[in-house]
Design brief:
alpha+beta, 6-stranded antiparallel beta sheet, 5-stranded antiparallel beta sheet, 11 helices, globular
Length: 415
């Protein structure tokens, strides 16, 4: 894992990143470069986190190879740099892994998802009540899985996903070893689980959604790359990021949310953006933990209903058109949202507004010191909780400005 922080204002932008890498969730190393600077005349850096390999190649190696491919003319915007990298990745991936090998890897990742699906369906069958139709249990499990998948962002078109699935429905005896048809592989995983035409349709929907949504497909997990700095036409810094999932032929699984720019706060501009493990950083900057608040409110409401002091949520007493006077008078979801909104408003007035207005006027070197300290706190939190040190090692810090470009403030090899 990783902890990264970006603080910016009208003077420029500060980036800070730890250097820890976690292997197989139980071993951490502390010497990974996650910040990659671009040489002049480019005023930009790339930070990465998440999956460290893309088609077996370290993402840092790929970023540096892309940087070497750039011309001496800066791009007009940070978004252009990001888009150029995605295009480069799709066009150059054959240099380190063939299309045939990527296809085989994608096949394996899809079957991993089918395996997990079959195990989940089997678990539901084992918990079915006596007399419950096994076919209906299977359908319910499959529909629930598909509903969850459908909530994810769409990465590639349905036509692209269906084309891949259709190709794999045919066996390929030219490979070594030969690849069976996708239907045959699915049957092997599902074994004696009941099947029907409707069940098969839900399985086909599942396969399409895994490909379409990029669920551990085609290269197992996602890498996040943040492109930070200035385009040729910029006076304010921009953070433009992409989640990269892999490639098949020339199709790149990626999602590119809207970029972040400094907003007006007080007398100037401010930008605060954190990535990966950042719960402690967010708590310090915003003054509260939204996820924990939501869970606490949910638990408190459940306890109140269980005590009998309030009417059950989302129900009306029999014979009444409205909740009892002793009830809360609102659904559970409405109460949770009301508490969250109140916390947001209080947090804004007490902490967030002041934080952004301060960031807007801080000198860059002071911002750099603050960013380094906040990432260090995130690492300290893991230490005092006795957790795997997935954030740690040296904290690399740099500044990027329109006039001076990229400059290291703190780096392992320099300290």
């Amino acid at each position: 894992m990783t902890s990264q922080l970006i603080l910016g204002n009208g003077s420029g932008v500060v980036i800070a990143s730890d250097s820890a890498t976690t292997i197989n969730s139980h071993r951490a190393y502390e010497s990974t470069d996650k910040v990659h600077e671009l040489p002049a005349p480019h005023c930009l850096a790339v930070m990465h986190c998440g999956r460290g390999l893309r088609h077996k190649m370290p993402i840092g190696v790929l970023v540096k190879a892309w940087i070497r491919s750039l011309s001496d003319e800066p791009e007009e915007s940070v978004e252009d740099y990001r888009n150029d990298f995605v295009s480069w990745f799709g066009n150059k991936v054959d240099r380190w892994q063939s299309a045939l090998t990527r296809d085989a890897e994608a096949w394996r990742f899809l079957l991993d998802q089918v395996d997990e699906l079959a195990k989940g369906v089997q678990w539901n069958l084992g918990r079915a009540e006596e007399g419950e139709s096994p076919t209906e249990v299977v359908l319910g499990a499959l529909r629930g899985a598909n509903e969850m998948l459908a909530r994810h962002d769409q990465i590639v078109s349905s036509a692209t996903a269906e084309s891949i699935i259709a190709r794999w429905l045919e066996p390929d005896n030219t490979l070594e070893p030969p690849r069976p048809s996708l239907d045959e592989s699915v049957r092997n995983f599902f074994g004696d689980i009941p099947r029907s035409e409707t069940i098969d349709e839900e399985i086909q929907t599942f396969l399409r959604l895994v490909v379409e949504k990029g669920i551990e497909f085609p290269d197992g997990g996602w890498t996040t790359l943040n492109f930070v700095g200035f385009g040729a036409n910029d006076l304010l810094p921009t953070v433009s990021w992409v989640d990269l999932g892999g490639s098949m032929e020339k199709t790149v699984w990626h999602r590119s949310p809207e970029s972040r720019k400094p907003g007006q706060w007080g007398s100037s501009y401010a930008l605060i953006y954190s990535e990966a493990q950042d719960d402690a950083i967010r708590l310090i900057l915003s003054g509260w933990d939204p996820a924990l608040s939501r869970k606490a409110t949910d638990m408190a409401i459940d306890n109140l209903y269980a005590s009998g002091k309030f009417a059950p949520p989302d129900q009306e007493p029999e014979g009444q058109g409205a909740p009892r006077e002793s009830g809360l008078g609102s659904s559970k979801a409405e109460i949770i949202e009301a508490v969250q909104t109140a916390y947001d408003d209080l947090s804004y007035d007490k902490w967030i507004d002041k934080t952004y207005k301060t960031v807007a006027v801080m000198p860059l070197l002071d911002l750099a010191a603050a960013a380094k300290a906040l990432v260090a706190v995130q690492a300290l939190v893991l230490d005092i909780r006795g957790q795997l040190p997935s954030v740690g090692g040296h904290i690399d810090v740099a500044t990027i400005t329109v006039n001076d470009g990229f400059r290291w403030i703190s780096r392992a090899e320099n300290d």
